[in-house]
Amino acid sequence: MRIALVSDCYLPRLGGIELQVHDLAVQLIRAGHDVTVFTVTDGPSADIPVVRLPAIAGVPLAGAIDRLRVELESFDVVHAHSSLLSPLAWHAARLARAAVITVHSLPGPTMPWPIAQIDRYAGNVGWTAVSEAVANVVRRALPGRTVDVLHNGVDPRAWRPVGRADHPLTIVSTMRLSRRKRPIALLHTLAMIRDLVPADVCLRAVIVGAGPRERAVEARRRALAPWVELPGRLSRYEIQQLYASADLYLAPAELESFGVAALEARCAGLPVVAMASGGVGEFVRPGIEGYLVESDTEMARTVAELLSDTDVLTRIQQHNRLTDPLMTWDHVIARHLVTYATRIAFADGSTGRVKDAVRTGYLIDTGPGAGGRQGNSFDGDGMAVRRRWR
């Protein structure tokens, strides 16, 4: 299958969408598919095929759209990854014969979000979201439309700690240092935790990441919580090493659409304490993988209690180390491939056989739009899709 992944934001810029689109491309290529990423983010060559289109302030130039139109004609399906503002992704969905849009962001309660206009502009696309939390928002904005969930994926084995050396009680969090992720609120929460935990208990806290609020966060850290470390941007390997010597992960964002960093921490065996308002609750059950809270004060109190209860802390850590979440790449790729096959069937006019295709695992492409394709086959669980070419 020829798959175009389109994302306005991409590596080397670091963030949830950027890393997930890259990892999705890698996993699809490993499964035998032909994948190219299209983006307006400038940068060097990459380990997978990337087309970097010219843009000004993130808005693709007219020539870029012309090139995109020509390039997308040779792809079976276009998967557009959308944040709250993603003009390239929306253009790609409109230009594609078979398109899927995945929404990666939660809008704020007062933020204008013209998703109905985007839907009309993009045309007949399949809407998806990275979590039920995001999907519910899209469903309310697009009544009558089906909005499926395509979770972000993780490789739990990559995050399993090999061993755990002695270390002080360590709290970690990984984020882009932007207002939306609430890093300064996290510093206030950490200060409250330090006040609640007995003074003779040695505490360490590390906030990993970089971003537009970096200077403000550093200034507030010096004034509020000088014991907190800000190492800046770390590689994935360095984050894995940090998690291996940590005890607890905090996710303070109130508009967390999914929480890939929290999922990775959970796979590393860390209890996750997160805001209940986002998508983290889809892989964190209270008292099992961590806790979901309604406020910064509740987060501080919950963490202080957990750090003082070694039995509960150890039980959750062991559970998280030994239990894979549902969002492993095998499951996530399987779901993506079924979604792609469904959109291709609609585009080819085979709507009457879409349900049979998903049920039986076989989809025949016929008609003038088939472009020489003989068929897609995948097993009953959708675990692999292979296309035979003439």
Automatic annotation (TrEMBL):
<keyword id="KW-0328">Glycosyltransferase</keyword>
<dbReference type="GO" id="GO:0016758">
    <property type="term" value="F:hexosyltransferase activity"/>
</dbReference>
<dbReference type="GO" id="GO:1901137">
    <property type="term" value="P:carbohydrate derivative biosynthetic process"/>
</dbReference>
<feature type="domain" description="Glycosyltransferase subfamily 4-like N-terminal">
    <location>
        <begin position="15"/>
        <end position="156"/>
    </location>
</feature>
<protein>
    <submittedName>
        <fullName>Glycosyltransferase involved in cell wall biosynthesis</fullName>
    </submittedName>
</protein>
<dbReference type="InterPro" id="IPR050194">
    <property type="entry name" value="Glycosyltransferase_grp1"/>
</dbReference>
<feature type="domain" description="Glycosyl transferase family 1">
    <location>
        <begin position="164"/>
        <end position="320"/>
    </location>
</feature>
<dbReference type="Pfam" id="PF13439">
    <property type="entry name" value="Glyco_transf_4"/>
</dbReference>
<dbReference type="Pfam" id="PF00534">
    <property type="entry name" value="Glycos_transf_1"/>
</dbReference>
<dbReference type="InterPro" id="IPR028098">
    <property type="entry name" value="Glyco_trans_4-like_N"/>
</dbReference>
<dbReference type="InterPro" id="IPR001296">
    <property type="entry name" value="Glyco_trans_1"/>
</dbReference>
<keyword id="KW-0808">Transferase</keyword>
